[in-house]
């Protein structure tokens, strides 16, 4: 036995044992001649066996969880999301609750040949209001031949209640997407206004500013109807083309609801006007 102890205590023997199996751990306790061997789910200490199946199971589970956490892809945060999103939103990572969305303008491109309906959430809220979902569903329900796009600036969306996936399953014409603002503004008259970032500074309304810029760009690129999410659709609108809504109370044209075909000169002129006259504090 003493000869075996000496053999096991030798560094060369320990190295060989480590290479033979990763399921076996051999330790020489300091300042003693005692040997502790762990073989997967049992300990052998001075020739006495101790069951450790529960400890091993927990350790294996922890290892799996760590592996899952380590291998989870990190969210790439854009500079404009740092301007729009709260810090806690930027720290979110993909889970079974918080889902990554395909990005409008990068992963998925609307067709100008479709009757598109755009409804946006630009305040970087991963938990959209139920009121917004009511608006989205009303447009999808009343306009079955239209392509309804609900786009958000949040890097992830909360699907803890399963609402948005249930809506997508119920309406084949509905798609919930993220928004790649960098791609969308690229090459448009509003690009410099967007890239300068002044829309987010010295103003209490950065999300509103982005919304006013974005709706014109979306319609110019792909055409369609843009609506605020505090509006409910009560009848089919796919026959309406190239129009803006009118505020009878204030006697002004209102961009809450408007439709223009892709490449329409009016939306182009709107972008040029915003490029030259954009005011960050005008709600």
Describe this structure in words.
The chain has 283 residues and is α/β, with parallel strands linked by helices. The model is unreliable at 1-8 and 14-71 (pLDDT under 50). It is built from eleven helices and 13 strands. The longest helix has 19 residues, at 53-71. It has helices spanning 2-9, 11-20, 53-71, 79-84, 87-90, 130-142, 163-170, 181-185, 191-196, 206-222, 265-277; strands at residues 24-28, 35-39, 42-45, 48-51, 98-100, 103-104, 116-121, 147-152, 156-158, 174-179, 224-227, 243-247, 252-260. It is 39% helix and 22% strand. The protein has a seven-stranded mixed sheet, sandwiched between helices. A four-stranded antiparallel sheet has the order 1-2-3-4. It has a two-stranded antiparallel sheet with strand order 5-9.
